[in-house]
Amino acid sequence: VIHEWWGLNDYAQKRARMLAELGYVAFAADMFGTGLVTDKPDQAREWMQDVTADVEGWRERAGLGLQQLVDSGMVDAERTAAIGYCFGGASVLQMAYANLPVKGVVSFHGALPAAPEEAKGKIGPNILVLHGQADSFIAPEVVINFRNKLEEAGAAWEMNTYGGARHGFTNPNADKRGMDNLKYDATADARSWARMQAFFDEVLGD
Predict the structure, then answer these.
(1) Are 133 and 163 in contact (CB under 8 A)?
(2) How confident is the model at residue 205, as a pLDDT?
(3) Do 194 and 180 form a contact (C-beta atoms < 8 A)?
(4) How far apart are CA 92 and CA 59, in angstroms?
C-alpha cells in the first residue's frame, strides 16, 4: 500500500488494515521517510517532487517496499499486488512500467504518468485505474494520452471512471484539506474498493 502525498499517515495504514481484514498480508510502505507526514499541500508537493524527479529512484523505492513485504515470509512471492492513492497511485503505475514482480497494481485517484516508450511489450502486471471524472488535477488530454500509451505498450489495463468524483474520493478526510478539488464520495469509494477486490480475485487467484 503506497500513501498519498501527505505521507504515511493514518489513512494509508487504515487501508492496509482493511486489506488484512479481507485475508491479505498488507504492508504500508513509507516513500518519504520515517515521520514525514504533513497536512500542508506545499510541503506534500515538495516531498512528492523530491521522489518523482528521479523516476528510476522512484521505482526503486516502491520496489524496496515490495521487497519488505516479500521478506516478511508471510506471503507467496508469486502472488503479490500493489495499491496506491494519489501519489501512491502514480507510484504503483511506475511499478508496472518497471515490470516489478507483482501480478497487478491498482491506482485510486492517482496521477496518471504515461507509459514510457521503453516499456512497450514489457509491462507484465495487470493495471486497474480508478479515477474521478471531476478530478481537476488530471486534464482530459492527460487521460487520453495515458490510455493511448498503455495501448501502445500492449499493457493489460482497465480504467473505471466515476462521474462527479473529485480527487481523493476514497478518503473521508479529503473535504478537510481546504482544497476545492478534494472531496470524499462514498459511492465511488465503495464501488472502487469492490472493484479492487474483484480484480484481486482474478489476478491473485489460484
Answers:
(1) yes
(2) 87
(3) no
(4) 9
